[in-house]
Design a protein that fits this description.
With about 425 residues, the chain is mainly alpha-helical. It is built from 14 helices and 7 strands. It folds into 3 domains: about 30-85, no CATH class; about 90-130; about 135-255 and about 295-435, SGNH hydrolase (Rossmann fold, 3-Layer(aba) Sandwich). The radius of gyration is 45 Å and the shape is globular.
Length: about 425
């Protein structure tokens, strides 16, 4: 046996050899004496696990394989080791799902921070950014006006300020002369005296100094009791910081209106979601939720195209709505002090800034004029005469300048009617402008 070991051959206990026999039966290997063997290592009979210790170097051998002779043992006797794989403790089992959740929690926190940052940036942009973010109808017209002024720097800008009647009825681009004043339409849908004041104050705050103003005068918008007050036609989310003095002075419930700037939600993107989607992809919204019909089709001169035409059936159907609103308005007509004061403030501020004003009365057909009562005419004409006398204002009375076919609802011009009307109006505006020197 020693010769075999010395020559490098396989020992009796090498793998593949049968175990040594004595007297015809297997003999278990004797245990190592205490203190013998490697530190922390102890040989045990086969089948006894090392549950109280980690695996020893010898235990790393394949299960059931013979190990090299151990110091203090019997040379060549195989010693079997059993490697026990420790199962994770309960703490380790709890830690594993926690680690798996960490990427999800991190993604969620990043997402929340991103949403908060976007809303903060949007809220800041609403008040400090371009005007069209809060009020596209005004802001997009302002952009076009600035562009026209760059194209014609030598021509003084004259702005038209009024309601949808002037917005749809005056089309400066159809006969814009090469010289003379640069006429641009800055009208707002539903714009009465308060909206007219808001528009002019915004223009001055935004650095535009009109050289002249064509100002609409329409008696129905001077009524302001109950639901007729102009505050109800102005969407609070469109109000800008520059509008606060006007709101405080002329709105019926200024605190309510100003608080309404945040819309139906304190989250800016939620409150303005309809306006945002109307700008980006309006077809995703039902028509009743879209905000773009009042400004998407506005041309480069501020004109908002009205109807192309109307059939007799469409006229009759629409007339029922017109009559239901305007007949009672004229029947109980009165001039509201805040509306009268706002109109007078427009004229005062224009005079203080040296901006000449010409008043215009837009077309109405005979059917619509039947709503007028003697009292409404007396009050409306009386207030107009008072303003003309106090401020020395010229007036263009164009109430009968359009055919009935061009006024399907009685007071809004069709697209072709707007062209015909504008070709007659602009020479009058130019003559007024020249008369001012």
């Amino acid at each position: 046996m020693n010769d075999v070991l010395a020559s490098g051959g396989r020992g009796v206990g090498s793998a593949g050899d049968p175990p040594a026999q004595t007297h015809g039966r297997h003999q278990p290997p004797p245990p190592l004496p205490a203190g013998e063997g490697s530190p922390g290592e102890r040989s045990e009979p086969a089948g006894v696990g090392t549950h109280d210790r980690g695996p020893t170097p010898a235990a790393l051998a394949p299960l059931g394989s013979a190990t090299p002779p151990q110091r203090g043992g019997v040379s060549g006797v195989p010693v079997l080791r059993v490697a026990v794989v420790h199962s994770p403790t309960s703490a380790a089992r709890l830690a594993a799902p926690t680690k798996a959740r960490r990427p999800f929690l991190l993604s969620f926190v990043v997402f929340v921070l991103f949403v908060v940052a976007v809303n903060i940036a949007f809220a800041v942009a609403l008040d400090l950014g371009p005007p069209h973010l809060r009020d596209p109808e005004y802001g997009l017209r302002l952009d076009s006006l600035r562009q026209r002024m760059k194209e014609h720097p030598a021509r003084p800008p004259v702005v038209i300020v009024g309601s949808s009647r002037t917005g749809q009825g005056i089309r400066p681009g159809v006969c814009e002369p090469a010289d003379g004043p640069l006429v641009f339409n800055m009208s707002q849908s539903g714009g009465g005296p308060i909206s007219q004041l808001l528009t002019l104050r915004r223009l001055w705050a935004d650095g535009v100094q009109p050289a002249g103003v064509v100002l609409e005068y329409w008696p129905p918008f001077l009524r302001g009791d109950g639901t007729y007050h102009e505050q109800h036609r102005i969407n609070s989310v469109r109000l800008r910081n520059v509008d606060e003095p006007t709101v405080r002075e002329f709105f019926a419930t200024p605190d309510v209106a100003w608080a309404g700037r945040s819309g139906e939600s304190p989250i800016p993107l939620v409150a303005h979601r309809h306006a945002v989607v109307s700008r980006i992809c309006p077809d995703l919204l039902p028509h009743s939720r879209r905000t773009d019909p009042m400004w998407r089709s506005v041309d480069g001169w501020g004109w908002w195209p009205g109807r192309v035409s109307a059939t007799p059936q469409q006229i009759d159907a629409g007339w029922q709505t017109v009559e239901a609103f305007y007949r009672p308005m004229y029947a109980g007509y009165s001039i509201h002090p805040q509306h009268a004061a706002a109109f007078r403030t427009v004229l005062c501020e224009c005079r203080n800034r040296g901006v000449p004003v010409v008043l215009i009365r837009m077309p109405e057909n005979e059917r619509f004029r039947q709503f007028h009562t003697a009292e409404s005419q007396r009050l409306g004409d009386g207030f107009l005469a008072e303003m003309v006398s106090e401020f020395g204002l010229p007036t263009i009375d164009a109430r009968d300048w359009a055919d009935a076919d061009h006024l399907p609802d009685g007071f809004h011009l069709t697209q072709s009617g707007a062209e015909v009307f504008t070709r007659r109006l602009l020479p009058e505006v130019e003559r007024w402008w020249k008369s001012k020197g």
